[in-house]
């Protein structure tokens, strides 16, 4: 399962980033993950996102 982390901004927008890939995604030529995508951490940010 691939691990992700999420950053939640004051404007309630969020950004999700890949933290690590599972074995099947590492060996796939397009790095596609077809198994569970796990959200490891959620970080609250004390600022607005770049779009706001």
> What is the number of independent domains?
1
H/E topology pattern: EEHE
Distance between the terminal alpha carbons, to the nearest Å? 32 Å
- SSE class: mainly beta
Strand segment count:
3
Mean pLDDT: 93
Shape: elongated
Beta-strand residue fraction:
35-45%
Low-confidence stretches: none
Short description:
The protein has 52 residues and is mostly beta strands.
Descriptive overview:
The chain is mainly β and 52 residues long. It has one domain. It is 10% helix and 42% strand. It has 1 helix and 3 strands; from the N terminus they run E-E-H-E. It has one helix at 23-27; strands at 2-8, 14-20, 37-44. Strands 2-1-3 form a 3-stranded mixed beta sheet, with no helix packed on it. A hairpin with a 5-residue loop joins strand 1 and strand 2 (14-20). The longest helix is centred in the middle third of the chain and has 5 residues, at 23-27. It is elongated and about 35 Å long.
């Amino acid at each position: 399962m691939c691990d992700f982390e999420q950053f939640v901004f004051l404007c309630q927008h969020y950004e999700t980033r890949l933290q690590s890939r599972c074995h099947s995604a590492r060996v796939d030529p397009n790095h596609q993950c077809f198994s569970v995508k796990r959200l490891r951490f959620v970080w609250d940010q004390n600022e607005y996102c770049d779009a706001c």
